[in-house]
Amino acid sequence: MLELKRILWNRRSFLLFGLLLLLHGVFFFFQCNEAKSNTLTGEALEEYIDGYADYVNSVHENVAVMRENPLFNNEESFVYRNLIKTGDDYAGLTGITPVIGENRGIVTLLNFNLTSFVLLLVGIYIVLCFMAERQKGLYLLIRCTYKGRMQLSLQRIGILGVGILTAALLLFGSTLLMSMRLFPGCDMGRPIQSVPEFGSVTGHYSIGGFLLLFFLKKAIGCLLTCLLLYFCMSIFRSSLCIIIFFLLFAGEYGLYTLIIPTGKWSAFKYLNLYTYVFCGTEYAHYYNLNVFGHPLNIAAGADVLAFIGTAVMILFCLIRYAVQYPKSEYKSLWFVEKIRTFVSRHKPSYPLFLWELKKVLFSQKALFIFVILFYLAFSASTEANYLDFRSRYITHWYEELAGKIDEEKVTEIRDKKTELEIKIEKLEISIQRLEENLIRNIMTGKGTDYISGLISERRELMEEYKKELKGISVVFEQAEAGLEFYLKTGIAPELIDPTAYELLLYNDKRTILRNYLYTLLTVVLMLSGIMAFEKASNMEMLLNSLYKGRKQTLFGKILIMLGICTICTLSIHLIQYIQIGKVFEYAHLNEPAQSIPCARFFPVLLTIRQYLVLIYSVRVLISAVVGGTVMFLSSKLSRIATIAIGVFLLIIPMGLVALRF
C-alpha cells in the first residue's frame, strides 16, 4: 500500500495524469475534423451496406472455385488449408446484416494514436518511479531482504497493471464520450461490420463489444512493453535503457512501415510490438499467416503472442528482481564503459555554442522530445485526407472568368448570370407549353412519345442551367464583394478560387489550433531545462563567475532557443500546407493577397506567397515569445516547475479557448 501511495496516490502523479488527460482530450477534439474524410459516408456508405451480402457471397464463390482447381487442392498444402479456413471464417458472416449509421467518431477514436502514446507514457513513468531507490542509494539495502525482493516485485507488477488499466479506462472512456458527442447518432449495438474499415472482421461483435476488446488489447500491449522496460532496467542504467527502448521501438516502426502487407515477411509487420500498441484498423484486414503450414489469422496471432509475452515477461521480472540477489555493479556495462572511455579520449573539443547545443539536444533529451512530438503531429495531420467539396459548376466559372475584379468584370459576370436566368425562364415556358400539348394529345388519342422526349430533354437542360446558375451566383457574390473593396481602397483583387487558401488560413481552425498546441508543447518541453540544467548540476555560480559564462553562453542559448522555435514551428505547421497542396493546387501565389476573402482587408499590398510567408513568420515569432518566456522561467525555477507553469500558462488556456471552435 505504501508503494502504491508513493507512486500513484500522490499530488505529483495526480497533477501529471490530470494534465495528460486534459491535453489528450483537447487534441482529440481537434482530431474530430469534419473537413477531412476518415471513413465512408453518405451514398458511398449506403453502397457498402447494400453490397455487403454480395461481398460475402463472392468470397464463398471464390473459395469454391479455387478448391476445385488442381493447383490448390493438395490437402497437405498451406494454400488448401488457408482456403478451408477462409471459407469457414466467412461462413459466420452470412447471417450478419450491417446497419447504416454514424461511424466517423468510432474510426477517429480507433486511429487516434495519441491515446496509445499517453498510455505508454503513463506506464514508462510508473516504471521510472520504481527506480527511485537507485537514485537515493537504497537499492542494495532494499534488495537484501526477502520482502524487498519478492513481495515488493509482486506489488510493483500489480501497480503497473493497475496504473495502465486505470489510465486506459480514463483515456478511452473520455474520448469515447467526446466522439459520441461530436458525432451523434452512433448506435453501439450495431455489428462491427457496419463500419467499412472492419468489414473483414470474422467474429460476431457489436461495436461496443469490439471497442471493449480493443481497449483491453491496447492495455495489454502497453503492459508488455513496460514490463520489457522494467526488465531492462535491471540490466542497464536508466539513461542507456531509455535509448535502447527508443531504438527498439524505432526498429519495430521501421518494420511496420517498410514491410508490405502481402509480402513474405508480413509476419514481422503484424506480429510487431509497435503495431500492437499503436494499431487502429491494421488487424481488421483478413489475412492468414503461414505457421508451419497452418493458417493463423494475424489478429489472433498477435493476441496470443501479446498474452504469452506478458506472462513470460512477468516471470522474467520476478526471476530477475525477486529471486536473483542484487549486485553492486553492472557487469553488462563493462564494454559500454570501455567504448565511452575511448571516445572521450579521442573526440575533439567542441566550441562553446556546439557544447551548449549538445547539452540541450542530448543531455536534456530535447532531440528525443522533438522526434516524438513531431511524429505525433505528423500522424495526427496525415491520418485522414482533406475532402474537395467544390462543384465543377463553380470551379469552371472561376477558370473562365479569371481576372482583376473591377466594374467591367462584375458587369460581365452579371450579364452571364442574367443570360442563364433568361434561358431557364424560356425553358420553363417551353416545357409548360409542351406539357399542355401532351395533355391535348392524350385527350385526342394522338402519339405522345415525341413530346415526352422533348420535355425530358428540356428538363435535363434546365437542371443543367440551374446548376450553372448556382455556380455563377457564388462567383458573382465574391466578385461583388471584391468590387466593393476595390471602390473603397483602390486595390483591385483577382477573381480566383480561394478554397485552398481559406482552408489553410481560416476554415480548418481545428488543425491550425492543434498545430499551435503541438508547437507550443514542443517548445516548452524542449526548452524547459535550457537554463535549469546548470542549476540542477550546481554549476550556476561557477558559470556566472566567468565572462563567457555570463555573455557568450547566454547569447548561444538565445540562438539555440530561436533555432528550436523556428524549426518546430515550420516543421509542424507546414505539414498542413503540404497536405492541402496534395488535394488543391496553389495556382495563384503571385496574385494579391486581398484576392482571398479572409485576407481582403489586410492593410499592406502583398502577394499571396508573401502573405503566407508573413503568416508563418508571425507563428515563428509567437513561438519565440513563448520560448523566451520558458527560458526565463527556466532560469528561476526547476525543469519540472518550468514545464508545469509553461503548460498551464501557455498551452491549456489556449486549448480551452479553442474548444469553442
Instruction: Tell me what portion of residues adopts beta-strand conformation.
Output: under 5%
Number of strand segments? 6
What gyration radius follows from the Cα positions, in whole Å?
A: 32 Å
Helical fraction: over 70%
Number of helices: 29
**Are there runs of 5+ residues with pLDDT below 50, and where?**
none
| Strand numbers in spatial order across the main sheet | 1-4
Shape, per Cα inertia axes: flat
Mean pLDDT: 84
Strand count, sense and barrel status of the largest sheet are: 2 strands, antiparallel
Class computed from helices, strands and strand pairing: mainly alpha
How far apart, in Å, are the first and last alpha carbons?
Answer: 44 Å
What does this protein structure show overall?
The protein is mainly alpha-helical. Helices cover 72% and strands 2% of the residues. The chain has 29 helices and six strands. The protein has helices at residues 2-7, 11-31, 42-50, 52-68, 78-91, 104-110, 113-130, 132-135, 139-143, 147-182, 207-233, 238-258, 266-270, 273-278, 298-323, 334-346, 352-363, 366-382, 392-400, 407-444, 449-489, 499-507, 509-527, 532-536, 540-544, 547-550, 552-583, 608-636, 639-658, and strands at 36-37, 288-291, 294-297, 385-386, 403-404, 494-495. The strands form three sheets. A two-stranded antiparallel sheet has the order 1-4. Strands 2-3 form a two-stranded antiparallel sheet. The chain has a two-stranded antiparallel ribbon with strand order 5-6. A hairpin with a 2-residue loop joins strand 2 (288-291) and strand 3 (294-297). Helix 19 (392-400) packs across helix 21 (449-489) and helix 23 packs antiparallel against helix 27 (552-583).
